[in-house]
Amino acid sequence: MTIKVKVEFLGGLDVISNSIREHKCVVPYEEGEATMKELIDHITKTIISDPKDIPVFIEDGTVRPGILVLINDTDWELEGMEEYVIESGDVFTFTSTLHGG
């Protein structure tokens, strides 16, 4: 069995995924076995198109500061951050809060 989720990159962060904002992901874990840690690892291996862009998304093993993370439209800090157990149908939104201008 696998976990099917949607991952969105907003606020210019889509540059790390060939300018594709929305991704339907199949995470190779059983329901109830994978956390945000595994999802973040999956994203860096399968969605980020250029390994040089990984530091734009990840710092010290987690999502870097300046990126707002929402789990089903709720701040991930309220959901347990990296420890959140992902479920099929979840929507994960990563939005850069650092804009040029």
TrEMBL record:
<dbReference type="GO" id="GO:0042803">
    <property type="term" value="F:protein homodimerization activity"/>
</dbReference>
<comment type="pathway">
    <text>tRNA modification; 5-methoxycarbonylmethyl-2-thiouridine-tRNA biosynthesis.</text>
</comment>
<dbReference type="GO" id="GO:0031386">
    <property type="term" value="F:protein tag activity"/>
</dbReference>
<comment type="similarity">
    <text>Belongs to the URM1 family.</text>
</comment>
<dbReference type="InterPro" id="IPR015221">
    <property type="entry name" value="Urm1"/>
</dbReference>
<feature type="modified residue" description="1-thioglycine">
    <location>
        <position position="101"/>
    </location>
</feature>
<dbReference type="GO" id="GO:0007114">
    <property type="term" value="P:cell budding"/>
</dbReference>
<dbReference type="GO" id="GO:0001403">
    <property type="term" value="P:invasive growth in response to glucose limitation"/>
</dbReference>
<dbReference type="GO" id="GO:0002143">
    <property type="term" value="P:tRNA wobble position uridine thiolation"/>
</dbReference>
<keyword id="KW-0833">Ubl conjugation pathway</keyword>
<dbReference type="GO" id="GO:0032447">
    <property type="term" value="P:protein urmylation"/>
</dbReference>
<protein>
    <recommendedName>
        <fullName>Ubiquitin-related modifier 1</fullName>
    </recommendedName>
</protein>
<keyword id="KW-0963">Cytoplasm</keyword>
<dbReference type="GO" id="GO:0005829">
    <property type="term" value="C:cytosol"/>
</dbReference>
<dbReference type="GO" id="GO:0097163">
    <property type="term" value="F:sulfur carrier activity"/>
</dbReference>
<comment type="function">
    <text>Acts as a sulfur carrier required for 2-thiolation of mcm(5)S(2)U at tRNA wobble positions of cytosolic tRNA(Lys), tRNA(Glu) and tRNA(Gln). Serves as sulfur donor in tRNA 2-thiolation reaction by being thiocarboxylated (-COSH) at its C-terminus by the MOCS3 homolog UBA4. The sulfur is then transferred to tRNA to form 2-thiolation of mcm(5)S(2)U. Prior mcm(5) tRNA modification by the elongator complex is required for 2-thiolation. Also acts as a ubiquitin-like protein (UBL) that is covalently conjugated via an isopeptide bond to lysine residues of target proteins such as AHP1.</text>
</comment>
<dbReference type="InterPro" id="IPR012675">
    <property type="entry name" value="Beta-grasp_dom_sf"/>
</dbReference>
<dbReference type="GO" id="GO:0034599">
    <property type="term" value="P:cellular response to oxidative stress"/>
</dbReference>
<keyword id="KW-0819">tRNA processing</keyword>
<dbReference type="InterPro" id="IPR016155">
    <property type="entry name" value="Mopterin_synth/thiamin_S_b"/>
</dbReference>
<dbReference type="Pfam" id="PF09138">
    <property type="entry name" value="Urm1"/>
</dbReference>
<feature type="cross-link" description="Glycyl lysine isopeptide (Gly-Lys) (interchain with K-? in acceptor proteins)">
    <location>
        <position position="101"/>
    </location>
</feature>
<keyword id="KW-1017">Isopeptide bond</keyword>
